[in-house]
Design goal:
Largest sheet: 8 strands, parallel
Number of helices: 11
Bound molecules: (1E,3Z)-4-hydroxybuta-1,3-diene-1,2,4-tricarboxylic acid
CATH architecture: Alpha-Beta Barrel
Distance between the termini: 38 Å
CATH topology: TIM Barrel
Structural class: alpha/beta
Helix content: 25-40%
CATH superfamily: Metal-dependent hydrolases
Strand order of the largest sheet: 1-2-3-4-5-6-7-8
Radius of gyration: 17 Å
Shape: globular
């Protein structure tokens, strides 16, 4: 584990907000355990272990029913820890994998059988050296055949240069953390408007309204400055939003959030039972458990 790494909260509070029946935590990770599932040699950070069993315990504690586990960059394109978690989830977890351009059809089929339903394209430079567009386009065309979607992760400042490539993607696209807006800028300023335009012009684009703890400049415990951004996306695109805890919160250097308080953030961004049900149940079930 890196010396400046913050481990996840040892005893999250019980949230006051009770999620609707069947709620899905649609963005979280498993790390290792490193002695069983070694971290990738090309990784840019080494985290603490965060096991599947700890994730299931958190799911139950927070009042959720299911998880979508997203492959984190510390495991590179080695999806063994993810697949192990999916296989031991009793069907209550689905996955988003990372693959290389030379992934075989048999490998994709095995991932699908384990419960993977998407691939992640990561453009955040501190995390990865992104594959070139032509390699990503090749992967996109192949996963489209499987009915998978593509999760994209990027910084808001990079969106102008990535916009056309994103527009060319052939299948459902899910944007991590609202495209990481700079929330010290206006919610109706040009930077966030470009992201809203991306969503508005592309009905097959979805957004995760996740990570107030990561985006906030104001900071804990309330992350007030993130509320208008997430609320705008939830209210404008209620059928294309997902929520996730982001447990175990990789690369949080300033503080480690209390996961119970993150759940209490949900009614502030999805203010009616109908919006909450779409965000937490209907939308993730449609995307990940339609079969
Ligand atoms: C997140 C955010 C981060 C890390 C990763 O795959 C990863 O390593 O996604 C980050 O550092 O912003 O969604 O977990």
């Amino acid at each position: 584990m890196d010396p400046d790494w913050l481990p996840f909260h040892p005893a999250p509070s019980k949230p006051a907000f009770v999620p609707p029946q069947g709620a899905v935590d649609a963005h979280c990770h498993v790390f290792g355990p490193g002695d069983e599932f070694p971290f990738a040699p090309e990784r840019k950070y080494t985290p603490c272990d965060a096991s599947k069993d700890a994730l299931w315990a958190l799911r139950d504690h927070l009042g959720f029913s299911r998880n979508v586990i997203v492959q984190a960059t510390c495991h590179g394109a080695d999806n063994r820890a993810l697949v192990d978690a999916l296989r031991h989830s009793n069907g209550l977890a689905r996955g988003v994998a990372t693959v290389k351009r030379d992934v075989t059809d048999a490998e994709l089929a095995a991932l699908h059988a384990a419960g993977v339903r998407g691939v992640r394209f990561n453009f955040v430079k501190r995390l990865v050296d992104a594959l070139p567009f032509d390699a990503l386009a090749g992967i996109a065309a192949r996963v489209e055949q499987l009915g998978w979607h593509i999760v994209i992760y990027f910084e808001a400042a990079e969106l102008p240069g990535l916009y056309d490539f994103f527009s060319s993607l052939p299948t459902t696209v899910v944007v991590d953390h609202m495209g990481r807006p700079d929330v010290s800028r206006p919610v109706d300023g040009p930077e966030f408007e470009l992201f809203v335009k991306l969503m508005a012009e592309h009905p097959h684009f979805w957004s995760k309204v996740t990570c107030p703890e990561r985006l906030s400049v104001a900071g804990p415990p309330d992350y007030d400055d993130v509320v208008p951004f997430a609320r705008r996306i939830v209210e404008t695109f209620p059928d294309r939003v997902l929520w996730g805890s982001d447990w175990p919160h990789p690369n949080m250097k300033s503080h480690m959030p209390d996961d119970g308080k993150l759940v209490d953030f949900i009614p502030r961004i999805a203010s009616t039972p109908e919006l909450q049900r779409k965000l937490l149940v209907d939308n993730p079930m449609r995307l990940y458990w339609s079969d």
